[in-house]
User: Fold these one by one.
Assistant:
Number 1:
Amino acid sequence: MTERIQQLLAQVEEFAITDRETLEKFRLAFVAKKGSIPELFEQLKTVPNELKRTVGAELNKLKESAQAKLKLKTEQLEASSEPTADQPQDLTLPGVPYALGSLHPLTQVRNRIVEIFERIGFNLADGPEIEDDWHNFTALNFPPDHPAREMQDTFFLHRQPDVLLRTHTSNVQVRLMRHQKPPIRSIMPGRVYRNEAISARAHCFFHQVEGLYVDENVGFADLKQTLYHFAKELFGKQTKIRFRPSFFPFTEPSAEIDISCGLHEPGVCQLCGGAKNICKGTGWVEIGGSGMVHPNVLAACGIDPERYTGFAFGMGIERITMLKYQIKDLRLFAENDVRFLRQFSQASL
Ligand code: PHE
């Protein structure tokens, strides 16, 4: 009996457990109910009484050593076990990357414009794209049958009463002034529509950002300083700004806003290079219109023009984006060509 025990002890020690299969074999061979160790315990009954103590002790030692080996190997195998659903094969492998989209360049530039103006105290306002004649034209001092209405190439959805797609974001000025008391200091980005032939320089829809500041003692110098600050923030410190006299029914005086392009030195344009098709060789490009809000507009919106003055400006977001990124064709913005859009995934303004 003792011999058999020693034999088994050696076998237990030598048994190579390398995987779940050999582990199970080991268990069946020695520890399981029908294994050789329980079998020996069975045989213990037949051992003469005086030997029972020593043989029993040896047998227990064998049992303990077999159980200890089984426990240890079970734990080792579990630690290095094969992958299961919630246990990936190799945790150090790099993950599967998600292909993130990016903001449209127009959205990025719009956000940057809003950020610049918000930092100097302008808040964000919004208005409808489907508008009536009064908010788009009449309240803005467009006389009936005035040619300026024709100039705006309006898309009408309905005639008499006229319902149209807004031709500019100036309709939001009107809505703000009607519903808010001065001081008003807002920035209003949005989409506008004009019935124009689509080309590299024009589209039937595009985006503007309108600005309005109405309070006591607002003057043209405030307008200039605000836009000067804006141009430097967006295009860089050396950017210069120029105002050219112009006409809008809703502002008086009115001015076109130009910024110096490319090298920020009038006369040298980096944007169009030798072609000179953007700045036409002048070194200046137009980015929008501006002026002091016409007293008739203030009055139409219920604001006392004797007490309050204000400035307004409207700029094309496509125009600004084209200048900033040297994009030569406006149609690219609406085509959704991912080769174009991908170039802006890392853009930082
Ligand atoms: N609404 C004008 C346009 O679309 C731009 C503008 C806005 C001019 C505000 C002056 C003041 O052309």
Number 2:
Amino acid sequence: MPHIHLIIGARPNYMKADPVYKALAATAQFQLTLVHTGQHYDHKMSQLFFDELGMQEPDITLEVGSGSHGAQTARILERYEKVLLENQPDLVMVFGDINSTVACALAAVKLHIPVAHVEAGLRSYDSRMPEEINRVLTDQIANILFITALDARDNLLKEGKTAESIHFVGNTMIDSLQAFKQHFSRSKIQERLNLTSAFALITLHRPSNVDDRSKLAELVSALEEITGKLDCVFPAHPRTRKNLADFGLLERLNNNPRFHLIDPLGYIDFMRLQRDAAIVITDSGGIQEESTCFGVPCLTVRENTERPVTITNGTNRLIGTDYHRIPAEVLQVLEADSVPKLIPERWDGQAAQRIAQILLKQDLTLFFN
Ligand code: UD1
């Protein structure tokens, strides 16, 4: 029976990998090993999701922790190579675009173990974004490419990948949304935060938005202005919280009764907030996709997106990084009668099933012969 390693490392990976693990396990045709690199390690960034998703606990943990990009990627590469040498799987599956994705893919192909990349072909064409480098490199060395939208196919073909290696399966993160949506109402987060009227949900953690003192100060001023119109809920990533504290911005936000700066949330609480928000303001990739499925307007605080289908079909708008424009953009959304809502093709909760069917038919011995 083919042995597959599934690699997870950081928060968005869990929701992408869980449905794939479950769909592969249901076939009873594969031996599965879940490997957690430990890129994220805080309870609220990691273990909480296993508990909530009822996710298989990792079989192997690499405990690499934080570090500079070079150090973190190198640690994963070195530790995962050792695991591969002992374990000899027939396929390594990587997800998304984080440092764990590229590091584990590289360790595998160097040992002539084929790699499948879930969420392949997304491109922002912004090489200053660490994730873009991770995406391009992972796709170059991956053998099987599972894509969420058709624009990804064009990107991959342009980069010389073959049509046979590309499989349009849909979005496994949306599989999780579909699988768990009946549980979102169970969350008591709105009651806990005492949210009785319309609110904005905010997540910002990209280095380009939160690592520079003056930019973060500008961003905070823009967010404060929004509280004139509606409550703001901001579950802050550890990086963002640390920078807010270091730059002396934390107290201002904590003293604003309409600004709820809180710790990172679990999946069910976060999804309830996202479903019920009047607007989402984010620099995340996955949230652009989830808000499109909820039909909730999303303002993306970036100059580009690797997920254009959320704009062409969904509720997403790119508003750039002139932060002073955010309050006016929010107002415009709140005053609009409706937002276009079209769920992208194959974002139907069946992506992991399609992946399982494709892998059942795939001869994994072909790639390195
Ligand atoms: C990583 C991914 C990013 C993804 C994000 C989701 C890369 C290059 N980036 O970014 O694509 O959107 O995860 O959250 O892989 N930290 C903690 N506890 C943790 C994890 C991180 O305190 O459990 C702090 C550390 O100070 C660390 C910093 O956050 O240095 C950044 O963590 P890191 O894993 O390097 O990248 P993220 O910004 O989380």
